Amino acid sequence: MRVDEDRALLTRLRPVLAPAAFFGGWTLLGGAGGVIAGIVLATLSWRVLGSVEAPSVRRRRELLARQLPVGVQLLAAALRAGADIQSAMATVSQALPGPFGDELAGIGRELSFGVAPDEVWTAHAADPLLGPMARTLGRAQETGAAVADVMDDLAVELQSRRRSEAEQAARSVDVRASAPLGLCFLPAFMVLGVLPLVAGVFGSLSLLK
After folding, report:
1. CATH for the 62-165 domain, from 1.20.81, 1.20.1070, 3.40.720, 1.10.600
2. Where are the domains of the chain?
3. CA angle in degrees (0–180, nearest 5) for 65-156-66
4. How far is residue 160's CA from residue 162's CA, in Å, rounded to a whole number?
5. CA distance 11 to 208
6. Alpha helices in the chain (DSSP H)
7. What is the per-residue burial (b if ≥16 Cβ within 10 Å, else e) of 20-41?
8. Using alpha carbons only, what angle is made at residue 124 by residues 119 and 125, rounded to the nearest 5 degrees?
9. Is the pLDDT of residue 36 over 70?
10. What is the pLDDT of residues 85-130, one digit of tens each?
């Protein structure tokens, strides 16, 4: 799998980058302090490379987040058309290939193997992305609410949340983009604004003596 390949690559890089981090710390400080700094940097780099998320995992999570509102809406449509939850999941998993379709196919297999639906929803309730869908299905089963209706409501909620996250991400991009620009203007601000002010203050103090 691609995920395993990415993790294997990161693991293979550790024996190379950890000694490089040690050498960098030792070269920077030298002596006993350099040795200590090198050991600290090597240890940190080893741990960070071992715990960093593989790029394919991040891409899959982001794609799943994008597919989730559409997938839930398709599930609601299939349920409203008269399909049971297992058939609806099978239909949507084929119509929407990718991470969401894979997850639905896995849940459908659990149901087909005879796992009780409430156990399936409970098992997926803590998932950061699929959790809302699993909890909604679990509550609908407990209360007897129309599953298609609650899934429609969930799709609207997920779409609204997705828009809010996109707007927040856009604002954070604006902030990150403006930071380098501010750093570029900082020296000019110091020279043209702060230094004349400081010189004027000291000049006035010298006149008062």
Report:
1. 1.20.81
2. 2-52, 62-165
3. 15
4. 5
5. 68
6. 2-29, 31-51, 55-80, 85-95, 99-112, 117-124, 131-143, 147-189, 195-208
7. ebbebbbeeeeeeebeebbeeb
8. 95
9. yes
10. 889 999 999 988 899 999 999 998 998 888 888 899 999 999 988 9
Measured CA angle at 143 (ends 142, 148), to 5 deg: 100
Residue with tokens 């693991």: 11
Instruction: Find out whether 123 and 107 touch, Cβ atoms under 8 Å.
Output: no
Residue 22's contacts (CB-CB under 8 Å, 6 or more residues apart) are 38, 39, 41, 42
pLDDT (mean) for 145-167: 84
Euclidean distance between CA atoms 193 and 185, whole angstroms: 11
> Hunting for tokens 């779409």 — which residue is that?
159
> Model pTM?
0.58
What whole-number distance in Å separates Cα of residue 166 and Cα of residue 180? 22
